[in-house]
Amino acid sequence: MHALNTDSLTLAYGDKIVIEELNLSIPKGKITVFIGSNGCGKSTLLKSLARLLKPREGTVVLEGEAIAKLPTKEVAKKLAILPQGPEAPEGLTVLQLVKQGRYPYQSWLKQWSQQDEAAVRRALEVTRMTELQERTVDSLSGGQRQRAWIAMTLAQETDTILLDEPTTYLDLSYQIEILDLLFELNETEKRTIVMVLHDLNLTCRYAHHIVALKNQTVYAQGSPEDIVSCQLVKDVFNMDCQVTTDPLFGTPHCIPYGKGRCIFQKG
Question: Residue 68's domain spans which residues?
Answer without folding.
Answer: 2-256
